[in-house]
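Students often ask what a 'structure token' actually looks like in practice. Rather than answer in the abstract, let us consider HAT C-terminal dimerisation domain-containing protein, a protein of 401 residues. Its sequence is given first.
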Amino acid sequence: MYYAGLQAKIKEANPLAKFVPCSAHSLNLVGTNAVDCCTQAVLFFNLLQNVYTFFTASTHRWKVLNASVKGLSETRWSARDDACQSLNKNWSLIINALNLINNDDTEKTLTRNEASGILNKLNNLETAFLSIFWGQILHRFNLTSKKLQAVNIDLGVVCELYKSLITYIIDLRSDKNYEYFKQCAIEKSKIKQFQSCTKRLKIRKQFFDEGPSKETTVEYSDFKVKTYFVILDQLRSQLEKRNEKYENLLKNYNFFFKLTEMTSIKVRKNAEILQNEYKDDLSTLFANECVHFRSHLLSIGDEAPKTIQDMCGVLRKNDLIGMYPYIDVSLRMLLCTPASNCSTKRSFSCLKRVKTYLRSCISAERLSDLAIMNIVFDVTAKIEFDDIINEFATLQSRRKI
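Now compare that with the structural description of the same chain:
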């Protein structure tokens, strides 16, 4: 892709162009890789889908359940969060419904066997543990993903959100948090032992002049080492790997976030690095301009802007673009670097609502105009259509068609 695909073509047109992976999609891939990293995680999400499929396959079973369950989705990662939340919320109702169906002699044998199989999988400590654990993890990931899909997000906010998730995962990887989730799972399932818990015999080497050997038995849980820690390690590894890409894109702009904390010499050095990268866009006076802008922010005090968007807003609100023209250019370069393409993809998806089977003969120009009106609906909704209709009637446009 990079050597002969779209990226290579763009690099030929502009060598300074940089590829920015969509931050929201990258976060989804982090979760996908974590789910596939161990057997227990794969089995858990398969069980979630089986529960949904079993109850939605029959209106009678759905009536017996008398609750809501959610299924998984290949394209929407947030569906996994919805599925976990519904399982945790309706845990006892799902168990009771499966027991009723399993013990109902009027049900088909196949249906009763399916209910019994799902019930056996739910009635173990591993499933209860993962339902609570994934429920909390996915809830945080889902809310972060929604924030990453915002139209006005920039790379600085993306790095902050990724770092917050990395710290969150690191904090969870401890024995105390493991015991917390385990205790919650025991209270939920009323089961006190993992099925994967085994006993290992430690036999000390016996010498010829000793008596009978003594064996010591130590209990340990494979679940903690091979599932809990593996999932968290995979999440952390993937988050750090993808966050590194965004930090590399942001590293030359980092001094803007610390202008008031850095000395003028450091500001000048960092500004020169950025100016050398974009020599055609930024003048050699850019470094001196940044030092002056630092002094300007220090004079403002506590009301000084902290984010890139706020800095651009101050330049426009106070009519300072003439004083700091190249700072305005550099800030707009950073803000125009796309951090997410979710809103763009939603714009393309609106075509299926515009071009229906009743509009199959619509021209390309008219389709494009209608799509733009649909995409920027928040703007078009404020237009006074009465004036447009009157102008259209005055021009007698119907006779021209």
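One point worth highlighting: The first helix runs from residue 6 to 13. Ask yourself how you might have guessed this from the sequence alone, and why that guess would often be unreliable.
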